[in-house]
Every structure is written in structure tokens, then in C-alpha cells.
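Troubleshooting entry. Yesterday's outputs looked truncated, so today I'm pasting the complete records for two proteins to confirm everything comes through intact. If either block looks cut off, that's the bug. Protein one:
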Amino acid sequence: MRAQKLDRVLTCTRIGDPDGAYPIFDATGSKLAPGRWNTASSPMLYAAEHYSTAMLEKLVRGSGQMPPGQHFITITIPNGVSYEVVTPDSLSGWDDISCSASRGHGEAWQQERRSLLLIVPSVVARTERNVLLNPDHPEFARVTASLHEPVRWDARLFR
């Protein structure tokens, strides 16, 4: 895959606990609890293209339980930064429960600093995408985040 340049401003959403051990706009959590696309040695920020997808991803990660005090931020990514896209057809096994294909791909992407963004499919919402940010990439300083706001969970999600 070859890095391309973003031709528009992109926004995405990230959910976290502003009073937790790590700030919402921080990749430390991905070192301690790697996700589908990273290992402990390849930290990255996980975000979603849409607020609703961020909520679904958070619910899946928390096994349906939500810790109190969750907030969201909107991340703004300016045009002109580099990105790569993984589609379901471009990476065989990306959605496998072992995460070996996706973790290997994400780790190489992060460590090689091939682009600021890696746009990947969501397992939980198959037609949606997640946006991974490489905090070690030189373009990361161009990214901004909003002030955090509370997530309003509908109680019907937890029945």
C-alpha cells in the first residue's frame, strides 16, 4: 500500500475517560492493552469516522459494560497529511479473531511511519471505518482535538 495525501479536512471521534490514568488524546492505553491493529511496541490512537461507530467500538471493547465518566473528543485532521487505507479485500484475515494479520500490518505501518493515518474497516460495523493515528509520525503535530464532552449512553443499550 502506498501513502496518499488527504485532499480535505477529516474529523473523527475518540471516546475515553478524562479522569482516567491516561488522557483521551494519548496512545498509552494501546501499549498496555493492544487492539486489533497494534502490538505493545506500536502505539497508536484508535478513533472512528463517526460518533456512533466510536460508541459501538467502545461497547465491544468493554464487553458491553461501560465504565462511568466516558467522554468524547473530535479529532480534526487537516488536508495534506498522509494516509493509507486498508479495505476488507486488500488484507486477507484482517477480521480474524487472532488479529495476527491486522496486528502485523498495523505494527509495520506504525514502526515504519509510512503515514499519519491508517484508515481501516470496523469489525463491529462492517460498512464503517476506523481511523488510526500514529503519534510517532512527524505530521502528528498538525492534528488537533476538541475539548472533551460527556457521552450520553442510552440505557436501552444495557438491558
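Protein two, checking that the full record survives here as well:
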Amino acid sequence: MEEKQVLGYKVYEDGTILNLNGKPKKNSKSITIKVGNKKYKSVSYARLVYYAFHQNDFDVNNYSYHVEHKDGNKDNNAIDNLYITNNKKFLWGENHKKSKLSIEDMKEIKRLYSIGQKKNEGQNTNNPFKKYSYRKLAEMYGVSFSRIKQIVERNDI
């Protein structure tokens, strides 16, 4: 069985990961890796396994790609069961597993917000007297203020 050493872990083809002490890491959804001198980051268990065997053509920090399981079993992290897909379909709109908004909803949010901007130019974007503030739109659509801000600031919707 092939073994790779990466980011302080030993990773095996069958998806087993051992820490520096040789103890197996629990097959959980995420694993902590060291990114800088004092910075730590949580990545998916499958992502680390895939990265270990594809270091030359896959960046563990590039989240424009998503690591998926061929058989749909998230506990089977064997390298031959993993593949990457474009992450765009997972991040935004109705395709995201936790999505509350459709693409049409997001377009409408941007449209409503822009109407408020034109009528109240020069005012703070969070002005409660504006027709459609981030907070008012968040209440209308049942999402957070920060989610509305993300949608309004996106250029690809």
C-alpha cells in the first residue's frame, strides 16, 4: 500500500491518515492542517487524502474545486474513490445543500437593492430610511445581513 507524507501526516491509499505520533486520525468530516507559522486551517478529510496523491496538480487551498466520493459513501476516503469537480455548482444558489435562495431570488435582491441605491445616493448602505437596506432585504428573504451583502457585492449574478 502506497504511503505519502504531507502537511505533518502520513496518508495511505486506503484513506487512512496517521499523525506524526503514528496514531490514526478519526475518519471525520475535517482535519486540521498547519498553513503558516501559527495559522491552522480545517480541511475535509477527503480533500487531504486527494491532495496527498495529487500534490503536483491540486492545491489544497484552492476551493474552486470540490473533492467528491465516486460511490457517495463519505466514509470511503480511498484515493481511487475520490475525484474533483468544479465547486461553483456547490457554493451558490439553489444547488448548495443549505441554500434558502434561488438564483432568481438573488437577482431580485440585487435589483431591489439597486433601486434603493439610486433613490438615496450618498447615504450609508445601512441607512434604515432607505427603501431596501441590507437588513430589510435580509428580513424579507429570511437570511442574514451578511448573506445579503455577499449577494449584492457579487458580480456574476
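Both blocks look complete. Sanity check on protein two: The CA atoms of residues 134 and 148 lie 6 Å apart.
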